Amino acid sequence: MNPEKDFAPLTPNIVRALNDKLYEKRKVAALEIEKLVREFVAQNNTVQIKHVIQTLSQEFALSQHPHSRKGGLIGLAACSIALGKDSGLYLKELIEPVLTCFNDADSRLRYYACEALYNIVKVARGAVLPHFNVLFDGLSKLAADPDPNVKSGSELLDRLLKDIVTESNKFDLVGFIPLLRERIYSNNQYARQFIISWILVLESVPDINLLDYLPEILDGLFQILGDNGKEIRKMCEVVLGEFLKEIKKNPSSVKFAEMANILVIHCQTTDDLIQLTAMCWMREFIQLAGRAMLPYSSGILTAVLPCLAYDDRKKSIKEVANVCNQSLMKLVTPEDDEPEEPKPVVQRQADPNPDNSSAKQEGPGSGGPDVSCDSSFSSGISVFSPASTERVPVTLHLDGIVQVLNCHLSDMAIGMMTRIAVLKWLYHLYIKTPRKMFRHTDSLFPILLQTLSDESDEVILKDLEVLAEIASSPAGQTEDPGPLDGPDLRTSHSEPQVPTPGRAGLLSTPSTKGLECSPSSPTMNSYFYKFMINLLKRFSSERKLLEVRGAFIIRQLCLLLNAENIFHSMADILLREEDLKFASTMVHTLNTILLTSTELFQLRNQLKDLRTLESQDLFCCLYRSWCHNPVTTVSLCFLTQNYRHAYDLIQKFGDLEVTVDFLTEVDKLVQLIECPIFTYLRLQLLDVKNNPYLIKALYGLLMLLPQSSAFQLLSHRLQCVPNPELLQTEDSLKAAPKSQKTDSASIDYAELLQHFEKVQKKHLEVRHQRSGRGDHLDRRVVL
């Protein structure tokens, strides 16, 4: 520093002492400056006051010499003390050089800067609030200072500033929020602790409503919650807990929409504490905001659904996620559906542009979120469009929701409970908003069919509930569903028209001429028949599914839908099946279900007495398909008490190729005859006179069997028949036996027998063709 330079009104002694390396001499100079400034204040000489402050700032505090900077800092503090309440007029000039010294490389100088600013702020008190942002910015840097003395000094200054903010009602929160939002993303633990402490202070001040600006800092708070320091995490938990209490007290003033996306992001983090806290917030948001959260359902489901599959290690998160899921589901009501007569909608099976698809399906103003399966929420990309917080009617858009559900159901790695939850959502949406949901049926149907191969019975049961609802909902009748699983299944009518050659000859009564084999129950919609087609197609392509779960699936469908319609439609489809081996296997499965399942009790009773045209039509339809398997055809005749026709069929067995599989099925039929289901048949053996063809049919089966356990079983049963010699009397032929009921005389049994022979001839040709190609093992048995 130039000793000859004029620093008036500072005397040379003051200047010399301010530049001294000893603190005591600089302190003496500060006292002289304080005395000098007091005189200027008394004289109201503002020009000289400004000149002293400027000199101390430019020539000392900002000097290149470290001792000069120290002298300048203590001198500025002395000025502030001398000015007293008038220091507010010069705060900018006093504070700026001190804050510059906060960045000094010398830790001692940074400490002296803290000390000087402490004295300035202590004198000015509330007058420093207009300069709060620069003070806060400087303090946030010192909070992470490596020197313990500097950190200690900054903490004293920090406490003083907090006291001033707490007791003042002039704090500029609007101007402070941008700085807080910036600083809250600091990774330094001390800086984070500093930020959290200030948020706690501001939250405790009654006149400061920090809740209005919570969307600005919520993301940063959740990031701080993941800090490695336990103390910081605990402080952050307290802050978030206080905010949540405030939200519960004043839900009407909360900007739920602006924070929903933040919660969705943090509900998917790998940190358990962050995830649990975010999920708890989400639960409260759904319960407090209600239907206002519906526009964000797709994002919420993306976050919540995977948590439902957590194990006991994350039990708390799983429980809260389950509450979120249930609460969100309850928000969907029938009022969210379209009117009963919506405008025609052109539905494309697959649109390469999801945005265009969404616009076409739900209109240009839908505002529905577009959430893809593999989108990364952690990337910071918003999955929501910020919605207005005004209380306006909420419109539920299903595009995003269905896309999320479809993605989770398609992911085979997803947990069982998540898949069940997805299916519950689909079922709920089909119940509450069927007309909207049927727009998405074409895209959902293939994955719903694929889910039938799931390993879990619970998943399959829920899947069947959804499929059954699709097949029976009246809303499915309003549109042409189009192809559900490939172009080969496309039809031109909402109700398939199935050609049935020779059908008119089955029933001789004119009134029955119009009956068709396709289902006609009003409870079934246009999707029902296509569902049956696709189900059989899946059984055909995945034989293991048919073997392991086929009976289970069909039995459950019979509980959920009309059993008669299911058997009617499947029989009709199998009638046109080109894979004869599959047709035979499928018929055998259906027959076993029909004869043994408790779910089919009513249908069996209907077939026992062919007294109505409907039951006769059902029998004829089943019979035509049952012809793919000779033994099942006989069992159907036994069930319907068509004993004479059963006997005629067995007579034809002599012309068939008798294989091991064939004899195995005869063996199983004998076992079935001994089951409770055929109790009525065994009792009819007591009436030899009226049931000669029943006994003949059973003897026919006995003659087909080799000497086996089944042969012995049936032989013992027939030995119990009384007076077997009456079988050959002419009276039995004249007595109009019950074995061929007069009620079913309208059925052309001769035509049915011809159909049986035709089908079996086809099977024989196919087996010979396979044998010729070398891909079929001849399993004929020489008797």
Automatic annotation (TrEMBL):
<dbReference type="Pfam" id="PF12755">
    <property type="entry name" value="Vac14_Fab1_bd"/>
</dbReference>
<comment type="similarity">
    <text>Belongs to the VAC14 family.</text>
</comment>
<dbReference type="GO" id="GO:0070772">
    <property type="term" value="C:PAS complex"/>
</dbReference>
<dbReference type="InterPro" id="IPR011989">
    <property type="entry name" value="ARM-like"/>
</dbReference>
<keyword id="KW-0967">Endosome</keyword>
<keyword id="KW-0492">Microsome</keyword>
<dbReference type="InterPro" id="IPR021841">
    <property type="entry name" value="VAC14_Fig4p-bd"/>
</dbReference>
<dbReference type="GO" id="GO:0010008">
    <property type="term" value="C:endosome membrane"/>
</dbReference>
<keyword id="KW-0256">Endoplasmic reticulum</keyword>
<feature type="region of interest" description="Disordered">
    <location>
        <begin position="331"/>
        <end position="372"/>
    </location>
</feature>
<dbReference type="InterPro" id="IPR026825">
    <property type="entry name" value="Vac14"/>
</dbReference>
<comment type="subunit">
    <text>Forms pentamers. Component of the PI(3,5)P2 regulatory complex/PAS complex, at least composed of PIKFYVE, FIG4 and VAC14. VAC14 nucleates the assembly of the complex and serves as a scaffold by pentamerizing into a star-shaped structure, which can bind a single copy each of PIKFYVE and FIG4 and coordinates their activities. Interacts with NOS1.</text>
</comment>
<dbReference type="Pfam" id="PF11916">
    <property type="entry name" value="Vac14_Fig4_bd"/>
</dbReference>
<feature type="compositionally biased region" description="Polar residues">
    <location>
        <begin position="508"/>
        <end position="519"/>
    </location>
</feature>
<protein>
    <recommendedName>
        <fullName>Protein VAC14 homolog</fullName>
    </recommendedName>
</protein>
<keyword id="KW-0472">Membrane</keyword>
<comment type="function">
    <text>Scaffold protein component of the PI(3,5)P2 regulatory complex which regulates both the synthesis and turnover of phosphatidylinositol 3,5-bisphosphate (PtdIns(3,5)P2). Pentamerizes into a star-shaped structure and nucleates the assembly of the complex. The pentamer binds a single copy each of PIKFYVE and FIG4 and coordinates both PIKfyve kinase activity and FIG4 phosphatase activity, being required to maintain normal levels of phosphatidylinositol 3-phosphate (PtdIns(3)P) and phosphatidylinositol 5-phosphate (PtdIns(5)P).</text>
</comment>
<dbReference type="InterPro" id="IPR016024">
    <property type="entry name" value="ARM-type_fold"/>
</dbReference>
<feature type="domain" description="Vacuolar protein 14 C-terminal Fig4-binding">
    <location>
        <begin position="543"/>
        <end position="721"/>
    </location>
</feature>
<feature type="region of interest" description="Disordered">
    <location>
        <begin position="472"/>
        <end position="519"/>
    </location>
</feature>
<keyword id="KW-0677">Repeat</keyword>
<dbReference type="GO" id="GO:0006661">
    <property type="term" value="P:phosphatidylinositol biosynthetic process"/>
</dbReference>
